[in-house]
Write a structure and sequence with these properties.
about 230 residues; 7-stranded parallel β-sheet; two-stranded parallel sheet; about 20% strand
C-alpha cells in the first residue's frame, strides 16, 4: 500500500491513546487522523484532529475523512453509560456508523477492539452486544476486518474503573497459573494490544480475522516487557 493513512476513533481511551502513540511513530503512515469528541493536547506534523460528536458522524455537512486503515477503539462500560440503551448506542450503533462511513470513504481495513467472551448469543448483555457488533462489522466488505478480543486491560487510565482495577489485580496475582487454554484470560497491557493492532494493520490480512487475547499478546509482544 502507498500513502497509508490511519484513522483512530477513541484516541482518548486506554488502548486508543497507545494506538495513537504507536501510529505516530510508524513511518509507514503518512498521516494519522483522530476522530472524537474533544481536542487532544498534542501536536505532530502528521496528526490531524477532527472533533465531532459521535451522534453527528452521519449528519449532513460532515465530511468523513478518508483513510486506508481505521482503528476503532470506541467503548464504554455499563456504569459510564448508565443504561443498556446508552451502552448499545456507543458499542454497537456508533461503531457500525463509523465502519459504514469509513467504508464509504474508501477505507480498506477496519480494526476493531472487542472483548474476550464476545458472543451474539451470550446471556450476558455486555458480551452479547460485543458479539453483535463483531458480527455486523464482519459483513461489511472491507478488504480486511481485524477483530481483537483482549482480556482485562492494564495500564494507566484517565478515569478510574474500580471494578476493572480489582479484577486486573486479582488476575495478575494468579496469571502464573493461567497456562494452556487459560492463557487468554491473563490481563494484557494496553500497549501490547495497540502494538498488535498496528502490526496486523501493516500486514493487512484479507477477510475476517479474529485475535483472542493470547494471540494478541504473542503478536504485540514488545521486548523488555513482561
Amino acid at each position: 500500500m502507498t500513502d497509508r493513512v490511519a484513522l483512530v476513533a477513541g484516541a482518548t481511551g486506554l488502548v486508543g491513546g497507545r494506538c495513537l502513540d504507536r501510529l505516530l511513530r510508524e513511518p509507514a503512515y503518512t498521516r494519522v487522523i483522530t476522530l472524537g469528541r474533544r481536542h487532544l493536547d498534542r501536536a505532530d506534523p502528521r496528526l490531524e484532529q477532527r472533533v465531532v460528536e459521535l451522534e453527528r458522524l452521519g449528519a449532513a455537512g460532515f465530511e468523513f475523512p478518508r483513510a486506508t486503515d481505521v482503528f476503532c477503539c470506541l467503548g464504554t462500560t455499563m456504569k459510564q453509560a448508565g443504561s443498556e440503551a446508552a451502552f448499545r448506542q456507543v458499542d454497537f450503533t456508533f461503531v457500525l456508523s463509523l465502519a459504514s462511513l469509513a467504508l464509504g470513504a474508501g477505507a480498506r481495513q477496519f480494526l476493531l477492539i472487542s472483548s474476550l467472551g464476545a458472543n451474539p448469543k451470550s446471556r450476558i448483555f455486555y458480551s452479547r452486544v460485543k458479539g453483535e457488533t463483531e458480527a455486523a462489522v464482519s459483513t461489511l466488505p472491507f478488504e480486511g476486518r481485524q477483530i481483537f478480543r483482549p482480556s482485562i486491560l492494564v495500564g494507566e487510565r484517565r478515569e478510574q474503573r474500580t471494578g476493572e482495577s480489582i479484577g486486573a489485580a486479582v488476575m495478575r496475582g494468579s496469571a502464573f497459573a493461567m497456562v494452556g487454554r487459560l492463557r487468554k484470560y491473563r490481563p494484557i497491557a494496553a500497549a501490547t494490544v495497540a502494538e498488535a493492532m498496528v502490526r496486523v494493520a501493516l500486514r493487512a490480512p484479507r477477510g475476517v480475522n479474529l485475535f483472542e487475547s493470547d494471540e494478541i499478546e504473542r503478536v504485540g509482544y514488545i521486548p523488555g516487557t513482561s
